[in-house]
Amino acid sequence: MYQKDYLLRMIAMMMKFIGELLGLIRKGELEKASEVLEEGYRRFLREDAIFFRNIPGEKLTQTLLQEHNYTSGHLEVLAELFNAEAELALAQDNRKDSLEYSRKALLLFEFVDKEQKTYSAERLDKIEAIRKRIEELS
Fold this sequence. Notes:
Layout: H1 2-27, H2 30-45, H3 49-53, H4 60-67, H5 72-91, H6 95-115, H7 121-137
Helix pairs in contact: 1-2, 1-5, 2-5, 5-6, 6-7
């Protein structure tokens, strides 16, 4: 129960963080947003962003779950970070990176949605929005 409460608090903090990050992107403060995003990886997942960026999408869940003992809660946090990365890359007019981060975010959100026993309309909305972004970028 303690671990579940911790993960719920972490996800709530993450949502606030993502909201602030997206606000920076909307304001056009892209350099600041990039710095904040990098800090987010270290703060929430205790690894540098490059660690996650270098894992191929097809090996992402297996690598993190089996080799690094991450939970589905961690994967949901990572999905949020990748989704923010995709938004930032798109704002920087980097369609290639936006597509890559969108695909990784979608993969993780779909995995979490399948594994979680609770229904989340918010998660399903994100999945649909990411699919739409991928379609537009492809």
